Amino acid sequence: MASTTHTDHLTRPEARNFSSTAKVLHWLMAVIILVAWVVGYYSGSMLHYGVSDGETAQKIWAINLHKSIATTTLFLIVGRIIWRAYHRPPEAADTPAIMKTATHIGHSILYALMVAVPLSGWWNSSSGGHDIPVAGLFTIPQLGGKNPELTPYLVTAHWFFAWALLIVVAGHAAFAVKHHLIDKDDTMTSMLPKKH
Ligand code: HEM
Fold first, then answer.
1. How far is the CA of 66 from the centre of ligand 1 (A)?
2. Is residue 1 part of a domain?
3. Cβ pair 127, 148 in contact under 8 A
4. Does residue 80 fall inside a structural domain?
C-alpha cells in the first residue's frame, strides 16, 4: 500500500549511532596506535645498535619518532576515559547476555592495554634516562627516574603489552566485521560516519 511507505520512516526504530566525539576519539586513536605500532616495531625489532653508525643513528631517529607519535595517546586515552565515564554508548544490538558480558570484558581489556602500552613505553624510556617527546612539540617529565637496571624488564613489558594490544585490536575488528557480514546488524556501522 502506498500510504505505508509514506509513514515507514516514522515507525522504523532509530539506527544505533555513536556520538561524533566517540567516533573521532575511536578512529583518531585507532590510526595513531597502528602507526605507532609499525614505527615501534621498525625501531625495536628491525634496527639494532652497534651494527653500523648509520643503523644506530637510524634507530635513535625511529625511536624518537615512535615516542613522539605514541605519547599523544597518553593524553587521548585520559580524555577518552573521562568522556566515556559521562557518556553511555548506545544500547547494544539484540545479543544474548553472555555475548554482552564477553563484549564488555573485551572492551575493558582494550582500555587497559591502551593505558598499559604507552605507560610501559614511557617508563621504559625514562629508565634509560631519555627524553620523552610529544608530537615533536614538547617533552613530558620522566616517569620514575633513570634506572638502567630496570630497562630490560620494561622493554619486555612494553613488547608484551604492544603485541597483546595488536592481537586484541585485530579480534575487535574481526568481531565488528562479523556483526556486519554475518549477524547483519548495525554494530559496525554505528561507529562509522553517519550517512545522510
Ligand atoms: C600507542 C602506544 C604505543 C604502541 C602501540 C607501541 C608499540 C611498540 C612496539 C610494537 C615496539 C617494538 C617492540 C619490539 O619489537 O621490540 C615498541 C618499542 C618501543 N617503544 Fe613503544 N609503543 C607505544 C608507546 C610508547 C611510548 C609512549 C613510548 C615512550 C614514551 C614508547 C617507547 C618505546 C621504545 C623506547 C621502544 C624501543 C624498545 C627497544 O629498544 O627495543 N612506546 N613500541
1. 7
2. no
3. yes
4. yes
Our count of domains for the chain comes to 1
User: What is the rounded CA–CA span in Å between residue 175 and residue 187?
Assistant: 10
Cα–Cα dist 56/162, whole Å: 23
Domain range for 97 is 16-191
pLDDT, tens digit, 9 for 90 and up, residues 60-88: 999 999 999 999 999 999 999 999 999 98
Q: Which three cell numbers, joined as nine digits, stand for 148? A: 638502567
Which residues line the pocket of ligand 1, CB cutoff 6 A?
33, 36-37, 40-41, 43-45, 63, 66-67, 70-71, 73, 117-118, 121-122, 124-125, 132, 155, 158-159, 162, 165
Q: Which three cell numbers stand for residue 18?
A: 555513536
Ligand 1 pocket, mutate which of 28, 43, 131 (most atoms under 8 A from CB) = 43
Using one digit for the tens of pLDDT, what is the confidence trace for 81-126? 999 999 988 877 778 899 899 999 999 999 999 999 999 999 999 9
Q: What is the pTM for the complete model shown?
A: 0.90
